[in-house]
Amino acid sequence: MSDLDVALVSTPIGSFRIGYQGRTVRVVDLMERGHETTALPEGPVNLVKPPYPKGSPPAQLRDYFRGSIQHFDLDVEPTMGHEFDRAVWKVLREVPPGKTITYGELARRAGHAGAARAAGGAMHRNPIPIIVPCHRAVGADGSLTGFGLNLWRKRWLLQHEGAWPIRSRTVDGPMDPAQRTLDGGRGARAKRARAVRKH
Q1: Distance separating alpha carbons of residues 67 and 152, to the nearest angstrom
Q2: C-beta of residue 142 within 8 angstroms of C-beta of residue 170
Q3: pLDDT tens, residue by residue, 101-150
Q4: Whether residue 134 lies in the annotated active site
Q5: Residues 6+ apart with CB under 8 A from 138
Q6: Side-chain half-sphere of 172: how many Cα atoms within 13 Å?
Q7: Which among 9, 88, 134, 163 is annotated as catalytic?
């Protein structure tokens, strides 16, 4: 296999290091205070600096955060992961932007019904976040639960893709009555009612 190319991509939620070979991504790593959180695979490494070639992995990651693309046209080959993890990650890549999936449904589609907690563990071990979109996995009630890059980034990513707010109730408890919700629930109705009373 060819040497690993590595690029740093600045985004609104932090700088990401992406390691790839051709169009195959091996790792996406959030650089916290300049330190990586996921080790690169062993072997020679080439540091790639901008401008990135159009369609290359770092260019697509940059364009996703700029909002000019929603889907990644890339292959992935994680640097780690057991058979169960890889099965869950494969299903996760089939969840489109703007949509979410529960951990229970994720496990069921991966062939392991009832293994919601284990699916959550697979999310925690995902070495290619964003491209393998673990931010699209939510609790059974639509709440935001564990995310290795912190919940505020998960919320940002879902909002960026048009999937937030998910429901009238979230990890933060009931939404403010004026808050727009995707399920058109009490928050949306209350807002319309106040608008009518003003006229």
Answers
A1: 19
A2: yes
A3: 999 999 999 999 999 999 999 998 999 999 999 999 998 888 888 788 88
A4: yes
A5: 100, 101, 102, 103, 144, 145, 166
A6: 11
A7: 134
